[in-house]
């Protein structure tokens, strides 16, 4: 087992930085995975920033932010993120890895930020799959960058904020193309029971 703790005083979300780093590694190693957020509460883990990355019914890693009460107790300023990796399981899941080269993108990317309200126990992976299915050609990356509860969010629900990167290999995307993909994403999420925040 290995743990990495990263204290920070800046505005970057360490939890999502850690998640992105691990998923990038799994993609490189060609390990298929799914994300499980239905985890038992742990007194040292932030209740909204705690997930497990699993494959073939095995837990590869847990990622969490340290609970604010723990940080306060030990007088730690800033957020602390932890990646707890089971390297024994991960190495057993590694398939034949070969190196592939791709041409560097010639055209700029566009990005869309959306926030969708879903039932609290909805898996992030389910929402990401729904978004990706809208356009596998233009959607090149999906990043979860925040989770909201309370306030204007109804009890039993959470708001997930995503940054979606669009890119075409052969051209610069027009505004109307980006807008079209955005509307299709909205419709796909609404069909799944999601509520788009800020959409009237």
CATH top level class name of the largest domain: Alpha Beta
C-alpha-based Rg, rounded? 18 Å
Any idea of the CATH topology of the largest domain? BirA Bifunctional Protein, domain 2
Q: How far apart, in Å, are the first and last alpha carbons? A: 47 Å
Query: Strand fraction band?
Result: 25-35%
In terms of structural class, how would the helical and strand content be classed? alpha+beta
Key features of this structure:
200 residues; alpha+beta; BirA Bifunctional Protein, domain 2; Alpha-Beta Plaits; 5-stranded antiparallel β-sheet; 5 helices; 34% strand
Write the layout of secondary structure elements.
Layout: E1 2-8, H1 14-28, E2 34-36, E3 45-55, E4 58-66, H2 68-73, E5 79-85, H3 87-93, E6 110-119, H4 124-134, E7 139-148, E8 157-166, H5 175-191, E9 195-196
In words, what does this structure look like?
There is one protein chain. The chain is an alpha+beta fold and 200 residues long. It has two domains: 2-93, BirA Bifunctional Protein, domain 2 (2-Layer Sandwich), CATH 3.30.930; 110-196, 2-Layer Sandwich (Alpha-Beta Plaits). Helix content is 28%, strand content 34%. It contains five helices and nine strands. It has helices spanning 14-28, 68-73, 87-93, 124-134, 175-191, and strands spanning 2-8, 34-36, 45-55, 58-66, 79-85, 110-119, 139-148, 157-166, 195-196. The strands form two sheets. It has a five-stranded antiparallel beta sheet with strand order 1-5-4-3-2. It has a four-stranded antiparallel beta sheet with strand order 7-8-6-9, with helices on one face. A hairpin with an 8-residue loop joins β7 (139-148) and β8. The longest helix has 17 residues, at 175-191.
């Amino acid at each position: 087992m290995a743990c990495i703790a990263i204290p920070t005083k800046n505005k970057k979300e360490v939890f999502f930085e850690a998640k992105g780093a691990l998923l990038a590694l799994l993609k490189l190693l060609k390990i298929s995975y799914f994300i499980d957020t239905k985890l038992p509460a742990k007194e040292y883990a932030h209740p909204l920033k705690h997930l497990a990355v699993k494959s073939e019914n095995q837990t590869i890693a847990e990622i969490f932010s340290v609970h604010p009460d723990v940080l306060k107790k030990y007088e730690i300023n800033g957020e602390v993120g932890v990646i707890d990796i089971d390297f024994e399981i991960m190495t057993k899941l590694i398939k034949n890895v070969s190196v592939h080269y791709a041409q560097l993108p010639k055209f700029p990317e566009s990005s869309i930020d959306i926030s969708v309200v879903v039932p609290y126990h909805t898996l992030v992976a389910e929402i990401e799959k729904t978004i990706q299915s809208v356009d596998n050609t233009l959607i090149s990356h999906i990043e979860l960058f925040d989770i909201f509860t309370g306030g204007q969010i109804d009890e039993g629900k959470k708001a997930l904020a995503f940054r979606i990167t669009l890119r075409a290999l052969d051209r610069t995307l027009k505004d109307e193309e980006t807008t079209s993909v955005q509307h299709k994403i909205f419709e796909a999420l609404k069909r799944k029971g999601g509520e788009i925040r800020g959409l009237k």
